[in-house]
Amino acid sequence: MSNGTHYEVLARKYRPQTFSELAGQEHVSRTLQNAIDSGRVAHAFLFTGARGVGKTSTARIMAKTLNCSVGVTHEPCNVCPQCIEITKGTSTDVFEIDGASNNGVDDVRDLRDNIKYLPSHSRYRIIIIDEVHMLSTNAFNALLKTLEEPPEHVKFIFATTEPHKLPVTILSRCQRFDFKRVTLPKIIARLREIAEKESVTVSDASLALIARKGDGSMRDSLTAFDQVLAFCGNSVSDEDVGTLLGTIDRRLLADISAAVFGGDTQGVLAGIRQVDLVGYNMRQFCQELIEHFRNLLVIRSVKKPEEILDIAAAELDELQKQSLHISALDIQRRLTLFIKAESEMSYANFPRLIVEMALLKAALLAPLVPIQELIEKIKALETAAVHTPSLPWEAARAASAPAPYHAEMQSTAPSRPSQPATVSAHPSTGAPAPESSGGFTDWGRFVAYVNGEDRQLGSVLEHGSPIKQEKELIEIGFPAGSYFLTAGQDTEFIADVQRLACTFMGGNTVIRVKSIEAGLAGAPLSLVEKKKSDAEQLLDELKQEVTNHPVIIEAQRVFGGTITDVRKY
User: Which parts of 399-526 fold into alpha helices (H)?
Assistant: First the structure.
């Protein structure tokens, strides 16, 4: 760290100077580099995206590549006089204009008059207008003609966080590049790189807190890191980072969520007390809690949560361990409570009480009991009461001194479990062997095998009907004009499926794809159609069973109610 009188903040000191240093914007870098290499550089560019993601830095790098003394190249040398001048902001041929303070029509007219002259010692005059959406309507109109037909030696680069405020006439004259929010792992990696260069000792957990504070902005993350270093020096502790940035400790969130799922009301209230003592904003805490439970829900709902969640690898491991014995439905029910509580906090004067009530309700939430299990229990009670002259509730009503009670029941109907299929492995390939040596009879087992090997192939086959199934030939029909027919007729698709079929069958098998009319009589159902048909049949049977059940009928009579809906969860 510098001990001199002048300190350069990290966001400026480590500003990207080449396309390769732009973190999280590889799609922009690659497109611009290809345009430069091929000589297809447009005369006007529009860079859009959130704050601090690299728009102005990219504009400077672009200016250096076009004016570099080495030649027009896809990476500037950063050592020639032109590159150094642009980096320092002293180049007479590169104009950086703030659209917020130079937004009048006179400013644009002056600019339009100046760009007529050739550059003094560079190839191009480059005009960079930051926050271009701040220009007035008259200023945009004054810029239109010049922007459409600029002199050959002029390039325009516009940057804005609000592209929707630009006139369509401006948008149509620019090549637009949308900058993405920088992902959490990439920000953490960049912070780790800077920490090593600055000889700072800091944990990955602290870097994750700092990166999360940046909310997808590399500049905001570096500013937060600067603030942490000013407070902690070269040795950063996790506690100091949490206190300084006002972020919620992830361990506290994990402890509170564990107390919720464990029904530990004491632990829940103790956690809220800790949140209040540290001084966290209660609504911010509730939002962090919602994000935490959302991450748990995603982990329990998808096979590859790392492709969905923008979190560090270490945090993902911890969340996976915590969600190991929790169902997605249990997480979803509690997440609904927290979302409702967060919306109520916007106009409440007692936010802590709202959070406490939501957490206590989540901790005391009764587990869902499948309706089939309840029906079986009721049947058992009916069987035991066959010789009883009256119904159980009538006997209870007639008792001389009945004990008062209140019962609350939540139920859901589960899907019927399918019978487990016994699958034997082929001795030489490890693939499931066919059911009989005379032919191939189980389309579902083959698709399940393909799904296990290649999910993309399997998802297409699930929409196919097995027209012909033999040991040497499998003929698959897809609805005419459908996407799945187009995908199924692809040569590479057929080759891949044929390879898997040969492995599955233990011999040469030809795959043939044909077009069939949707709903063709006699054509076997695809797995998707069969699954839909089975689900509809199961729901109809369930509705019939519930509607005709004597206990349900008696409940309707006693309470004067009607069945409005029967759902399967």
Answer: 443-453, 455-461, 483-488, 491-505
Closest among 40, 44, 46, 41 to 145, alpha carbons compared: 44
SS3 496: helix
Residue type present at position 329 = L
Residue 426, pLDDT above cutoff 50: no
Note the pLDDT tens digit of each residue in 280-292: 888 888 998 999 9
Burial of 134 (0-12, 13-18, 19+ CB in 10 A): middle
Beta bridge partners of 478: 515
- SS3 category, 43: coil
For residues 50 and 161, the answer to whether their CB atoms sit within 8 Å is yes
Is the torsion defined by CA of 146, 152, 157, 163 positive or negative?
Answer: positive
Local structure of residue 413 (DSSP, 8 states): B
In whole numbers, what is the pLDDT of the chain averaged over residues? 81
The tokens 């206990």 sit on which residue? Answer: 551
Angle between the N-to-C axes of helices 204-214 and 184-197, in degrees from 0 to 180, rounded to the nearest 10: 120
Q: Which residues pair with 46 in a beta bridge?
A: 158, 176
List, for residues 164-190, the tens digit of each pLDDT value: 989 998 998 899 999 988 888 889 989
Catalogue all structural domains in the chain, each as residue range(s) with its CATH number. 10-178 (3.40.50.300), 184-245 (1.10.8.60), 250-363 (1.20.272.10), 443-524 (3.30.300.180)
- pTM of structure: 0.56
Do the Cβ atoms of 351 and 283 come closer than 8 Å? yes
Q: List the one residue out of 249, 149, 159, 188 whose CA is nearest residue 24.
A: 188
